[in-house]
Amino acid sequence: MDIISTGETLVLAGEFDVRSTTEVRDAIHQHLFGEDRDLLIDITDVTVIDHTALRVLAAATRLAGRRGRQVTLRGAGPAVRRMLHMTHLIRVVELERAARIA
């Protein structure tokens, strides 16, 4: 798992599964406890994501809310969206709205 922090964005690439959740959770916590701004997590280049990873994102969203901030997920493809719906985590995780092309 590659994690790049660019200001208020964490860009994740690679396999986001049970083996990488600790690393991602640490990066999220570092941002939420070290920065006074919202967090955008870009998963566009994530090749694999599992239920454990989605729970990390949901927990980060709840933690940010308690701190008066918001976590938004960018680049969630159809498979990730289906998993969010199936696990009911769609009620917790905020997805970035895609820009409409005129």
UniProtKB/TrEMBL annotation:
SUPFAM superfamilies: SpoIIaa-like. It comes from the Bacteria. Residues 10-102 form the STAS domain. InterPro entries: MlaB-like_STAS (IPR058548), MlaB_ABC_Transporter (IPR052746), STAS_dom (IPR002645), STAS_dom_sf (IPR036513). This is STAS domain-containing protein. It comes from Nocardioides dubius.
